UniProtKB/TrEMBL annotation:
Molecular function via GO: NAD(P)H dehydrogenase (quinone) activity
Family: Belongs to the WrbA family.
Taxonomic lineage of the native organism: Eukaryota, Fungi, Fungi incertae sedis, Zoopagomycota, Kickxellomycotina
Organism: Smittium simulii
GO annotation, cellular component aspect: membrane
Entry protein name: Flavodoxin-like domain-containing protein
InterPro entries xrefs: Flavoprotein-like_sf
Length: 230
């Protein structure tokens, strides 16, 4: 049986996220349950009309990683997204990507796909959880399901050191000046999240089967053919 494809997508301007993304990839590939692709969000700004314009990639992109596209979003079966917390929400480039996607992906195209996320914050109290909740609301608009980390690892019960993770996903605390690097426990959690995410995705029916059932129900509810929903 063909393996499902998981895209690990991170915000390229944040080197801390790249380190977490690398660990997530290692966890995803550990047991050979899924195919994995590493990507970064595009370094673009979006006009008032919603059209993307390239920004200078010098500080916004990891030059060794391919850019995540709308076609990747359509092709992927599941996604792990890496985001910095920007006062409780996502950066403008990431927000713009999802706004652009909403105008270029038809209703129902993302139904049945699974997502997870990992985060960076400046301090331990700097809105990790509210950033996760804000991002999840965006995912739900597209019909994606969210797979949380949950209280499923001993490191999440640690009280004697800073751990930048929560029930929503792994993460790291970078400090205000980005001087702090991900700790061993934070990297372990990113690896663990990748491993468990692969297990969840591999045990979930192929997207096309889940999507077929959902679209059949939607077509009955709205009284339109399935072809008009995708």
């Amino acid at each position: 049986m063909a393996k499902q494809t998981v895209y690990v997508v991170f915000y390229g301007a944040d080197i801390h996220l790249r380190k977490l993304a690398n660990q997530a990839v290692l966890g995803l590939t550990k047991n050979g349950l899924v195919e994995v692709r590493l990507r970064q969000f595009p370094a673009v700004r979006y006009t008032n009309c919603g059209n993307p314009e390239l920004q200078s990639p010098s500080c916004l992109q990891d030059k060794c990683t391919a850019v995540f596209t709308i076609d990747d979003l359509k092709r992927g079966d599941a996604f792990l997204f890496g985001l910095p917390s920007n006062m409780g929400t996502m950066p403008q480039q990431v927000r713009g990507f999802w706004d652009y996607a909403a105008k270029n992906i038809k209703c129902g195209a993302m139904i049945g796909k699974i997502a997870g996320a990992f985060f960076t914050t400046a301090t331990q109290s700097a809105s990790h959880e509210i950033s996760a909740q804000s991002f999840i609301a965006t995912l739900f608009q597209f019909g994606l399901s969210y797979a949380p980390l949950g209280m499923s690892h001993p490191h999440l019960f640690c009280t004697d050191e800073v751990i930048g993770a929560s029930i929503y996903g792994s993460g790291t605390v970078s400090s205000i000046h980005c001087a702090r690097q991900p700790s061993c426990k934070e990297l372990d959690l990113a690896h663990y999240q990748g491993e468990t995410f692969a297990f969840i995705v591999s045990r979930t029916p192929i997207v096309t089967k889940r999507k077929s059932v959902c679209l059949s129900r939607l077509s009955r509810i709205f009284g339109v053919s399935r072809g008009n929903l995708i």
